[in-house]
Design brief:
By secondary structure, the protein is of the alpha+beta class. It is built from eight helices and four strands, in the order βαβαββαααααα. The protein is globular and about 45 Å long.
Length: about 200
Amino acid sequence: MKLHYSATSPYARKVRVLIIEQGLQAAVELVRADPMAENAASKIGNPLSKVPSLELEDGTHLFDSPVICEYLDHMAGGDALLPVEGARRWAVLKAQALGDGILDAALSLVMESRRPDAQQSEFWQARWISAIHRGVDDIADDVRADDAVFDLGRISYACALGYLDFRLPDLDWRAPHPGLADWFSDMSGRESFALTAPPE
């Protein structure tokens, strides 16, 4: 299999973390891709021209990150990072949606900031910033309730916080959440996160 990814994509990072945590490095070849390049959609096998995209042995492709993570987690066997059933499965899926939703807002904010000043929308920027802060508040509450859990939801949380550090450090999510900052520091020390950190 081949994972088409960008080193700066937090969605691709989530998949790469899961690959390492599930010991699938030998089964998945990492292929760097530029989703903005000409003909990128056909090269990465995603008509939306987005990464990550997972190319299977038969030449078909899976996307986006939640689908790829579930596929690889199921394929790995052993201890699942996404439970296959029960209340815990829905809790993990909800956590993944929260982490990904923060990323969606953060990415929108980054893209908006790259437009000419006169074309930027203060309304949407404020809306995205508020969504990010509310989302981080919920992450902090969830982690505070049980900081020992490790699953796909917590991977999603850490990837979201890492992306805020990488692209939006001025939001300073740590200041109101010192406990969450400690948790994130511990997560960042895991081999899977250290090896997938975005370039400086």
